[in-house]
Amino acid sequence: MPLGYNNPRLAEAARTPAMVRAITSRPALGSFPSQDYAALLESGILKAAPKGLEQVFTATTGSDANETAYKAACIWKGTQERGGKDFTDAEMSSVMDNQAPGAKKYSIVSFKKGFHGRLFGSLSTTRSKAIHKLDVPAFDWPAAPFPQLKYPLEEQEVENRIEEDRCLKETAKIIDTAEQPVAAIVIEPIQSEGGDNHATPYFFQRLRALTEEKGVLMIVDEVQTGVGATGKMWAHEHWNLTSPADMVTFSKKAQAAGFYFSRADLRPDKPYRQFNTWMGDPARAILFNAIYDEIEKGDLINNTAKIGSFLYSGVEALAAKYLELIRNLRGKDRGTFIAWDCSKRDKVIALAREKGVIIGGCGEAVIRLRPMLIFQKHHGRSAMLGKVVPNY
Question: Domain containing 339: what range?
Fold first, then answer.
């Protein structure tokens, strides 16, 4: 929920003739996009695009956004290997039996403890909890190690640099030795479901350089981190990359979904290669336009950065008092994307809800904060004054 419940600007957008038409006569965008769909994207979703990524492929959910990004990466790699030539008869016939050479044996590298969705392709890159994956067939795709850093980050720079270099070296080895050639890597700016695990800009900068060196695509999964929650529109903006990632996926706070890209060779080269009936939803694009307008009008991203500093300081003060309940506090200077380890996580979350404070868990024993972009200091003062934890 980016703007809270019953937001008047969203209610206004919902009552427009354009929204009525989008809901009652939803277009099958894969075949019959409405005449104004391009203009609708340009006035909202594309206005919010990450720097350097001026095109978008719209989807329905975060999992769908990631899967279509994976498909784009594999199609890109296959097209490269054919040198842009048309398909052979052998490819056309073998693919109907899910066999080579038509069905490629490419892989998507993800990172341990990462989460990218629950559909078949995205689930093969999800590695946060076993319950997500049990009994479901999966692609045999490799997992690289995500840095397990020590917090606070600024006090553990030497140890963390060693750990990040180790993970970069192992990722390079995985790309070089993968039995199934790697088409792309996918990574979250902050591993969300896996425990709100952070890495430094150094790690991501060198990871980007590594993908360029190895000739694989870099997909940044911003489904959870995107649209302002980290104090920037997109969390990867904290990295200061010299060249943008190849694709950035989004959903959740956008209330829409898809992936941003720039490369012309990631556009489908033939009909039906990237295709489904809906391929997004104009109704959701209309809502995103209103969301983006409210973010801009209310300066909500800067607000989130300031509120994040306020919340972090408050939790930091509580951590000094309650060592068992608040350990490894993380998320400094990352807006409201704040989390900590808690030995009695589930009990604390339950108590907080009894007191009217909705907080969530992730990883094995992590409490995370996910307030809306409109969150203000007075919303958090009772918790900061210690009216939740001490009663525990």
Answer: 300-384
Instruction: State which of 271, 297, 323 marks the end of a domain.
Output: 297
Q: Are residues 283 and 337 in the same domain?
A: no
70 is a domain residue: yes
Same domain membership, residue 306 and residue 293? no
pTM of the model: 0.95
Q: Tell me the per-residue pLDDT of 291-313, one tens digit each, with 9 for 90 and over.
A: 999 999 999 999 999 999 999 99
Give how many domains the chain has, as a whole number.
2
Q: How far is C-alpha 98 from the geometric centre of its chain's CA atoms?
A: 30
Tell how strand 257-261 and strand 55-59 pair up.
antiparallel
Active site residues: 115, 221, 252, 277
Q: How far apart are the first and last CA of the chain?
A: 28
- What is the residue whose two structure tokens read 């203000």? 376
Task: Tell me, yes or no, whether 266 and 317 share the same domain.
Answer: no
pLDDT in tens, 332-343: 999 999 999 999
Q: Where does a domain end: 297, 323, 358?
A: 297
